[in-house]
Amino acid sequence: MLRKIDWESQIGRRLRLRDLHVFSTVVQRSSMAKAAQHLGVSQPAISEVIADLEHALGVKLLDRSAQGVEPTIYGDALLKRSVAVFDDLKQIIRDIQFLSDATTGEVRIGSTEGPWFTLLPDVIRRFSQQYPRIEVHTDLIDHSEVFLALRERRYDCVLIPYIIGLQDRVADDLTMEILYDDAMIVAASAHSKWARRRKIDLAELIDEPWILTGPTAWNRAMSEKMFGAAGFSRPNPKIATNSIILRARLIAGSPYLGLFLTSVLRQLIADNYALAALPVDLHANSQSIAIVTLKNRTLSPVVERFLVCVREVAASFAGKPAGRAARLATAPRAPPLLLVGRGRGSGSEEAAPQCPMARPHTPTLPHKAGGRKTAPASMRKQP
Prior knowledge:
By secondary structure, the protein is α/β, with parallel strands linked by helices. It has three domains: 79 residues, Winged helix-like DNA-binding domain superfamily/Winged helix DNA-binding domain (Arc Repressor Mutant, subunit A); 110 residues, Periplasmic binding protein-like II (D-Maltodextrin-Binding Protein, domain 2, 3-Layer(aba) Sandwich); 138 residues, D-Maltodextrin-Binding Protein, domain 2 (3-Layer(aba) Sandwich), CATH 3.40.190.290.
C-alpha cells in the first residue's frame, strides 16, 4: 500500500524543476547514460536524481532492463504532469514578455495540408502585417498526430479538416471550433474533354484514371462515403499521393481526375494551374475546417490575437460557402469551363469563362513579339 505523501516536508521542499527536467530527459533518451551525455553531467548524478525522486514520491518511476529504461505507470503520470508544468512556465515567460512589449512574442501552429495550403498563408500575411515583430512558427503535420502534438504542447493550436468520426476522437481536454464550410469537388485538366461538358454524371467517370490520396489520408473515409452515396465503390487510383501540389501538376498535364476541397482548387487555379472543376453532382461531400486548442491550457495574449486573425480570415472563406459553390458548378446553365486556370507556359490564348465560385482573376497572357497581349474582351472586368 502506498504511503501518504506529505507535501510540505517531502515534495514542496525536495521536488525541484531540475529534477523533473532530468527525469523527462531520461525517459526521452531511454537511457541514463544518454541523458547524462545530453545534459552534460555524470551518470551517477543522473542516477542520484532519479533515486531521490523515487524516495520522495515513495514509488518506482522507472523500469530498468538491458535495453534501457522506460517509465512505470507512476512515471507516466509524473511525465504527463511535468509536460504541463514546463509548458505553464513557458507561458508565464511569454506573458511577461507580452506585458513588457505587446508587439513581441511567438505563435506555434500545426496544420494539415488543406488549410496549410489555403487558409494559413492569408492568416500569416495579415497577422505579420499587424504584428511584424511576432514570430510565427508553423509545421505541416499528419492528421494522425494533431491531438498528440497539442497534448505535448508542441503547438498552440492546430488547423484541421473536420473529418468523419473526428468528434469521437476529441476528448474533454480539447476544444474544437468550426471556422468555415468547404466541400469536395472533382477536378480535371482544363484541356481535357471533360472540361468542355456542361453536365457530367459521376457514373461516366468511375472507369477513368484517378489520382487520389493514400490509405492514411484524412479524406479517405469521406471520399468512400461520397462515392458510396452515389452507389459506387471508391475507384482504385492509378496514382496515390497525399501531396496537393503533386496531384495538381499531374492532373493539369494528364488525363487524370482527382478530388480537391473547393478552397484548395480555387487557390490552385489562382496560382495558374491548368485545372477545371467538373460539373458533377456529388453526394455526402460536406466538409468543414476547424481549429483545435487544448481546453485547460491558458493561451498567451499573443496566441489569442493570432486566433482572432484566424477567425477574421476564415470569415472571408465562409463568405464563399462550398455547398453553394458546388450547386452553382452543377447548375444546367453553368459555363462549359469552370474554375479554369492557365497552365504555365501553355501558350493558350483561349479565354476562360468566369465561374461564380472563383475569385475574380484574369490570367496573365504570354509575351509575344510586338509587346504584351491584353486579355480578350470576354475576360475584362465589366463596369
